[in-house]
Amino acid sequence: MSVENPRNNDEEPENAPKKELSPAAQRALAEADARRKEADRLAAENPTPKEVDGRGGKDPARYGDWEVKGIISDF
Hints:
Blueprint: H1 23-45, H2 60-63, E1 67-68, E2 71-72
Antiparallel strand pairs: 1-2
């Protein structure tokens, strides 16, 4: 027998009242939305170039794997 805990439910009840946001919170959300739209627009205009003859695999700076074809390099 399991009992549902309403606090752990990801879905909000349909009849739950919406919390009123302060003017500062509304401005912050509007500014964040504008920044996201601008970033998406710039990304669409200037796509990142593909790497040519790269080492392939995971990013060594992130994963610490500096080995290529059995040769290890450390910077």
